[in-house]
Every structure is written in structure tokens, then in C-alpha cells.
Amino acid sequence: MASSLTLNGITKRHGAQTTLKGVSLDIRPGEFLTLVGPSGCGKSTLLRIIAGLMAQDEGSMAIDGQLIDALAPKARDIAMVFQSYALYPHMSVAKNISLPLEAQRLSLAGRMFGRLWPFSAATRREIAAEVDRVAAQVELGSLLSRLPAALSGGQRQRVAVARAMIRAPRIFLMDEPLSNLDARLRVQMREEISHLHRKLGATFVYVTHDQTEAMTMSSRVALMMGGEIVQCDTPAALYSNPQDLRVAQFIGSPGVNVIASDDLALWGPLGVRLAEAQITPMQFALRPEALRPGTGALTTRARIERREDLGHGQLLFCRQIDGNARLTLRSTAAELAQIDLSGGIIDISADPAQLMMFNAQGKRQLLKGLAPGAAVQRSAHV
Ligand SMILES: Nc1ncnc2c1ncn2[C@@H]1O[C@H](COP(=O)(O)OP(=O)(O)OP(=O)(O)O)[C@@H](O)[C@H]1O
């Protein structure tokens, strides 16, 4: 049975700096929850506190409703896979995988004298059977006698995962386990870890600064910034319904287009109405796919500063001519064939229903001034 993990007001200080500012999170049984955010936002610190490798200054944590704060790391029944994998280079794959079970089940003498210690033979056989079972699950069965140096990065990563799996922990913690791999292997391992999660049905808490990893693997993503969780939601909701401008800007590649009120007022009569309908100046945001070459309800003229070929279309990096907005749009080959790009100047139109609005503090606001049926329904009120 998978376990839940509840974090309640976790605070951590390092000298004068508050690294975690009262983080609360309910992680559901069997969930793949990813902590994502820029370097230094406190992801690894939070993971270490969950594992028991570091103590929080305030707050509490519970697994299946039972507090774990006072438990030593081993007693928490949590396994952690580190970025470095932390494999012992002089030990075989089988030995690396079996270590946690040996520590748990063998006496000190059994561990020291190995096979020479006759009283542990039955336990050793049990452990060897467990190693075979787990190694088969992560397809390492044929590599058990190798040393880590004779493995690829992906295989080493699987050894680290197998070592975590062998204790059948209640929760898996993974700290950037793919960051040492090349781009191709990272994609492959993303799929393998997702597959493993589905197969084990266990609760995974995964840390990465790579939003693509977070978006492709997770049930939910908690976006952290400056020691706080800014938003925790499904990948689709984080992308299409960000509640904070920092979330809109962190998620999505190429990034979201941000347009100031004054610049939106240059997008034709609807732009003027939308900008003026708000009491204070706002920031508007549009995903690249919400923009099209050509005219529409909201239109502005822009100079193309750079183009990137995507094969099936292009990314156009533009600058608004009258205003200051930088605009990136994704355009298909068919669309591009219809328009004259020779002068380097195009009309860009935006879908009003996809317009998002944020106040000066970056908090999502309900858009006023659009006809019913458009963005009013789409944008969630905070
Ligand atoms: N032992 C420590 N002593 C002092 N400061 C620390 C300590 N551990 C972490 N910090 C600080 O806490 C902040 C968060 O660090 P943490 O490693 O959790 O960030 P992160 O989000 O995991 O970043 P990265 O993606 O770069 O690993 C950083 O500013 C870091 O310098």
C-alpha cells in the first residue's frame, strides 16, 4: 500500500537566511509529486528534511498520519536516490543493491565475515533472492557481477533505484537523479522512472530544476521559489492556469509573453478597453501559441528580430513596433506561407480568451472588460 506524506509549516533557517518559509503540502498515496524551481529555492533542503538527514526548525511531517519528526532516517521507511547515485565503486552491482538489506537483516558478525559466518547462510540466500527480484524489475539481471565503472550512466542510475527499492520503502525520494546524464539518456530515463512509478504504485517525491522533467513525469508539480511553494497543481493546470506570474514565466518553453497595460492598449480597440477596464496597471500574459501572424480582435504590429526553424514551423521572436513588448509566437509552415515576411514586419493577433492578467504583486486577477464567453470564463479568480 502506498503512503501519504503531509508537510505542515516546515521552516528551516541557515544563519540569517530563511531557506524554507513554512512549507505545507499534502502528498497523496501513490502520487508522483515533483518539487521544481530555480537553483537555491530550497528543493534539496526540503527533501533532506523529509529523509531525516537534516532537522527542520519549525513544522512537522507525517506519513499516513503518523508524525515522523522524531524518527531517525532509517526508521522513517523512506528511500532516497541521490544525484550522484552514491554507489560503492569497489562493490559489484549485486552487492551495491543488497547493502540496505544486509544492514537491516544481518548481524555485525554476519556482515564482517560474509560467507565465512555460517549462521547467516539462510538470510544471505533470502537477500540474494530479493536482489535478483529487484534487479529483474529494473532490467539489471545480467549485470549483477559488474562494477559500477563498467556501467553506463543510465545503468548506474538503475542500480541506485534498485538499492532504494529493495527495502520496499513507503516513500521514494529522488534528488535530481537524471542531471548527470546526457540529453538522450535523460529522455529515456524519464520514461523508465515513470514506468517504475506506475509499476510500483509507490509514492514518489522527485526534485528537479528542469521543468520538462517535472511536466512530463508528475501527477502534480509543486513550484518552489524563495523557500515557498508558489503553486502546486497538475502539469496541465500549472501551464494553462498559473495563479502567479512567476509560475507562468517558469513553466513553458519558449516562455510566456508578458505585456504591460500601456502596451496592451496598442492592440486595437479591444486592447484599449481591456487596459482601461482595470483600476490599476496590470501585466498581461499570453503563451506563444495564443499568438498568430495576421489580424484579429487584438492586433499589434511587430518587427521580427529572430526566427528559429522547428521543422514543422517556426518560432518568431518579435518586438512590438509602437510599444515595448517582446513577443514570441509559434507559427506553422502553412501560416508562414500565407504571409509576407520580406519586410521583417508582421501583424500579430492574440486570442483574447487566452489572455491572463496579473496584478503588481504578480497574483492572477480576473480579467474585466471582455465580452461574456471569452476570457472571463477561462481565467480562474484567485
Ligand atoms: N548547510 C547549509 N548551510 C548554509 N546554507 C545552506 C545550507 N544548505 C543549503 N543552504 C542554502 O539554502 C538555500 C537552498 O538550498 P537548496 O540546496 O535546498 O536549493 P535547491 O533548490 O535544491 O538548489 P539546486 O537546484 O541548486 O540544488 C541556498 O541558498 C543554499 O545556499
From TrEMBL:
Note whether Nucleotide-binding occurs among the keywords: yes
GO molecular function terms listed in the Swiss-Prot or TrEMBL record: ATP binding
Matches recorded under InterPro entries: AAA+_ATPase, ABC_transporter-like_ATP-bd, ABC_transporter-like_CS, ABC_transpr_MalK/UgpC-like, Mo/tungstate-bd_C_term_dom, P-loop_NTPase
Task: Kindly state which keywords UniProt assigns to this record, in alphabetical order.
Answer: ATP-binding, Nucleotide-binding, Transport
Report the SMART domains cross-referenced here. AAA (SM00382)
The ABC transporter domain, residue ranges: 5-251
A Pfam family of the record is ABC_tran
Q: Which family does it belong to?
A: Belongs to the ABC transporter superfamily.
**What protein does this entry describe?**
ABC transporter ATP-binding protein
Please give the organism: Pseudogemmobacter faecipullorum
Q: What is the lineage of its organism?
A: Bacteria, Pseudomonadati, Pseudomonadota, Alphaproteobacteria, Rhodobacterales
